[in-house]
């Protein structure tokens, strides 16, 4: 097998096999079929890149077809947004089509199916139909309307079409097999009554086709050769083929459905329903809020189309579901912006710095490189004078040994400028530093070639001159959720995992070269991260969005939390061995503080479960987490796991474990009743005074 063949993903291999078996290359046709009931998100980007990528690879047409069969949820706004997103991602379509274009044809095929005994009108309630349909382990049974006459079905269906019946009174069902092992084949719905205004057909229709019926037939009308969808539609393939069987003409191309694994990304939600909830409840500021995983949100945040396409290329096309780390998407973005974004200076938490030996009336324009990764980017001039802003965190009055920024008596370089030395500070009445006074070495200017300019110093700081600085609003965006799987926890609302620090709005100062920036322009604020100009900016007020930091702060935070939990477990051992009561209390307070500081819900849950074993210290750790973490409640642990924890803890030889288990049971009324007998038996044999006091207080 050649190197090229080895690099093919499985969909490409299927297409190559089709061509090898005689399928005409000029008959290849693909489509991207979004439902216009929301904005596209990063998950759709994978499907977009796949379908349009196949079109480019095989020089085949790719249709944009809107599956607009549900007027209750679809709007023209979504159609327009989807088209804008596709264009921005760099793709164009052969034809813009709509399932609503085919409503008349779909209706006529449905009538033909009724005449052929393959469809019937059912007048049961949705609840009765669900019961009649059976379960995955129990076959369905024929409903009372399954054997209506063809004439009666035709008359009812016509009346449904004419609007003579209310919503929910009748549906059209395919007549297939109520005993099929595939629940989807048990007489699925084809049409329902909806007296709703459609964004394209207006009030022409009172009945609308179901997705499973319309989708495959639309593929057939458009002569799509390879209908590519995600894995949740595997069970739908049998139904897809059955509907095609009813209309297929051997002289035409028959579409075939193939499924690939959709994109699952941690620290976000991909459900359109949940994204819509965030918008409708004003938790975010619209579909294009820069914290949203929507294409429009990512674009506004400052993501590039190239970085999203690269991300989709890296994750590839596979058949197995997996979860991709959000950090990979950010990595692709940094790689792209590193090559293209000009470097500029901005100060977001300013403190005044005065160069006392720099002439008060002097002003210089220093040369600064725009992007060291791009030789063609050239240089710009930045003003320099006696009074500057630097970042407050870049100065410590008394600094530790490994502090490589400015402090009293130490030297640092100002980027593109001079070496300065901290001399003294000015403080206000409360003791807060308001000014830092420094001196500079006049011979140390960057790029001058002097001996002083080549002197090595501890660090380099960015800055802006106070006289020339432009005030800007800076929106510091972060991930919207603090948990890696916010919508995967049973009995937990995904909104419980909202990141309270996902947006901070501050006032910053930027260098004067940014005075005329336009919305969408991207920059690297040196030492701070990548930022882009928000669309809300005006001539009088520039607004920057933080796109991504220079480093992966979340990966660092995740590792810190994992390390903190591991180190805390070691502290448990110290706590258990410590004989002196005050020292033990200090260790315990430190352990509790560490537990409370952990935000990662999934990590905490995993740690609790992992430490339910025949080990006193491990059981102590799990009970402490359960008692002191504000991220995890008793109800978040499954019943079997919790029972195991209580059972083992009450039998523990360590009194501290027994105490914690009893205290946890006190607030867990459901399990307290289950363990009442065990607690009563423990009371009879318990020797530890504190445990006995607790048990006595329980009055069992």
What does this structure look like?
The N and C termini lie far apart (75 Å). The chain has 22 helices and 29 strands. It is 37% helix and 18% strand. The strands form eight sheets. A seven-stranded mixed β-sheet has the order 12-27-28-29-25-26-13, with helices on one face. It has a seven-stranded mixed β-sheet with strand order 23-20-21-22-14-17-24, with no helix packed on it. By secondary structure, it is an alpha/beta fold. A motif ('KMSKS' region) lies at residues 269-273. Residues 460-534 form the tRNA synthetases class I (E and Q) anti-codon binding domain. A motif ('HIGH' region) lies at residues 34-44. It catalyses: tRNA(Gln) + L-glutamine + ATP = L-glutaminyl-tRNA(Gln) + AMP + diphosphate.
Topology (elements, then pairings):
Blueprint: H1 3-6, H2 10-20, E1 30-32, H3 42-58, E2 62-66, H4 76-89, E3 96-98, H5 103-115, E4 119-122, H6 126-132, H7 150-161, E5 171-174, E6 189-193, E7 207-209, H8 211-222, E8 226-230, H9 237-245, E9 256-260, E10 264-265, H10 272-280, H11 295-301, H12 305-315, E11 323-324, H13 326-340, E12 343-344, E13 346-347, E14 350-355, E15 364-369, E16 379-384, E17 387-391, E18 395-396, E19 406-407, E20 411-414, E21 419-427, E22 433-440, E23 460-461, E24 464-465, E25 470-477, E26 503-510, E27 522-525, E28 529-533, E29 542-548, H14 553-577, H15 581-597, H16 601-610, H17 616-628, H18 639-650, H19 655-666, H20 669-674, H21 676-685, H22 689-698
Parallel strand pairs: 1-2, 2-3, 8-9, 10-11, 12-27, 14-22, 18-19, 20-23, 25-29
Antiparallel strand pairs: 4-5, 5-6, 6-7, 13-26, 14-17, 15-16, 17-24, 20-21, 21-22, 25-26, 27-28, 28-29
Helix pairs in contact: 3-12, 8-9, 12-13, 14-15, 14-17, 16-17, 17-19, 18-19, 19-22, 21-22
